[in-house]
Amino acid sequence: MNKILLLIIPISLLLTGCYDYKEINSIAIASATEITKENGEYITTIQAINPQAPNKTTVTQAPFVIYSEKGKTLQEAYRKILLKSSRFIYSSHLQLLIINEELAKEDITEIIDFYIRNPSIRTEFYVAIGKDKNILKVITPIDEISSASIKESIETNTKYLGSVSKVTFNEFVNMTINPNLEIVLPTIELIEKEEKSTGEKIENTEDTEPKNYYKLTGLAYFKNNKLKGYLTTEESRNYNIITNNIKNTIITYECQKDKYLTTEITSSKSNIDISNNFINISIKLTGNLNESLCHYELKKESTIDKIENEINTHLEKELTNNINKMKDKYNIDAYGFLDNIYKHDYKTYKKIKASWYTDTYKNYKVNVSVDTELVEKGNSMEEINEKS
User: Fold this and answer.
1) Cβ–Cβ contacts within 10 Å for residue 10, how many?
2) Could you say which DSSP state residue 168 is in?
3) Degrees (nearest 5) of the Cα angle 166, 169, 174?
4) Which of 183, 125, 123 is CA-nearest to residue 339?
5) Is the distance from CB of 79 to CB of 67 less than 8 angstroms?
6) Is 284 exposed, middle or buried (CB count within 10 Å of its CB: 0-12, 13-18, 19+)?
C-alpha cells in the first residue's frame, strides 16, 4: 500500500500546473517601467519586447513596444494598459524602474508597496531617478537604445568610473524602511542632440532617428523618503569612495596652473570610525599615473611621493567639503553615518538617534585621511617633458 502511495504522489506533482500559468505567445515581456504623477494620477509607461521584431536586422519593426496609461493607483494604470495590449504584460524579467523626479519629491512608499505586493515581479531590477519625463518613449528608437542599454551603462559606470552606483529594488526598499539610512539613487536625464561642427540642433530626416540620448548624471539624494537634490559627477564619485562603492575610477586635479594630472584608481578601501563627536574616515587608494601635463622627473622616488601627497591633499579637501556640505548646508545624512553608529556603538546610538537631525549631526567634526599608492608611475610623457 505504501509503495502505491509513493508512486501516486510524484505522478500527481507532474500533473499539477501553475495557478497563474500563461501561454508564451499570449504575453509581452516588460523590460522597463517609468512612473510619474500628474494631477493626482499615476502615469505608468512600460517598455515591452516586441514579438514581431524577430532579429536585429529587421528594419520595419522596432524591437520594443511602448504602452502608457493613467490611473488613480499604479494597479489601475497597469490594468488599463491591458486594454491597449493584446498580450498580458509579464513583468517577471523587469530590468529597470525609472521614477520621475516630480513623483520622487513626494513620499514614494506607494511605489514600493505596489511592487512588494506583486509576487510575479522579481525585485532584482535596478532603480533610477528620471530628471525628464517620458524617457522610455524618447530613447526607444529602432536602434535599440533600451532598458538593457541603460542597465549596462549603470553597470559599466559603476565598474569603471564610479559617478553612479547600481541600486537594486531590494536595496532601495532597505534604504526606505531603514530609519538610519537615506535613499541615494542613480540619475538619468535626456540630452538633446546637436551637430558636432556647428553646434546647431540636428534636423531628423527620418522619424525613426532618435532626437535625444540619455546620460547618467550622478546620484540623487533623499531625506525622509523625499527627493531633495542631486550630487555632481565628482561629488557622486566621492560619495562612492566614502561608502566603499568604488571599483575603478579616475582622479584629475590641477598640478600646475591650467595643467592637469590624471590617476586611474584600481583599488579603493574606506574605513569609517565615529566616536567622541568625530567622523574619522581613512581611505587607502591604489592606482596608476595615467597622464600628466605637468613637468615631473618620474624616475625619482621623491617625485612619486610628491604626486601621491598631492593626490591625498586634493581628495582630503574634496571629501571633507562634500561631507560638510551635506551636513551643514542640507542637514542630510546621505553617507549613512547614523547607521554606522547603530552598527558599531549601539549605546551611543540610543542616546543620539532622536536628536540626530535636530542637533547632534551638525556638531560632529569630520576628519578625512587619504593614503595613495601609485603602482605604475612612468609613461612616454617623461622623456618629452625632459626636453622642455
Assistant:
1) 9
2) B
3) 100
4) 183
5) no
6) middle
| Three-state SS at 54 | coil
Read off the C-alpha cell for 150: 541603460
Residue 201, strand partner residues: 194
Question: Contacts from 130-134 at CB under 8 Å and sequence distance 24+?
Answer: 130/34, 130/36, 130/98, 130/99, 130/100, 130/101, 130/187, 130/188, 130/189, 131/101, 131/187, 131/188, 131/189, 131/190, 131/217, 131/230, 132/188, 132/189, 132/190, 133/36, 133/100, 133/102, 134/34, 134/45
- Mean pLDDT check: name the lowest of 124-128, 204-208, 224-228, 323-327: 204-208
What's the rounded Cα separation, in Å, for the pair 310 and 185? 31
Is the Cα torsion angle 70, 74, 76, 81 positive or negative in sign? positive
The residue with cell 543620539 is 352
Mark out the alpha helices in 99-232 (DSSP H runs): 101-104, 109-117, 135-138, 147-160, 169-177
Residues 122, 230: Cα–Cα separation, whole Å: 28
Query: In Å, how far from its chain's centre is CA 383?
Result: 41
Q: Is 97 helix (H, G, I), strand (E, B) or coil?
A: strand
Q: What is the pLDDT of residue 195?
A: 47
| Alpha carbon distance 307, 294 (integer Å) | 11
Residues written for the chain: 388
Taking a C-beta distance cutoff of 8 angstroms, is the pair 294, 307 a contact? no
Please give the Cα distance from 331 to 324 (Å, whole number): 9
pLDDT tens track for 39-89: 989 999 999 876 665 555 444 555 678 889 999 999 899 888 877 776 677
Which 8-state DSSP code applies to residue 252?
A: E
Q: At what angle do helices 109-117 and 74-84 cross, to 10 degrees?
A: 60
Whole-angstrom Cα distance, residue 78 to residue 101? 20
With both helix axes pointing from N to C terminus, report the angle between 169-177 and 109-117 in degrees, rounded to the nearest 10.
Answer: 130
Element holding 274 (H helix, E strand) = strand 259-275
Distance from C-alpha of 164 to C-alpha of 172, rounded to nearest angstrom: 14
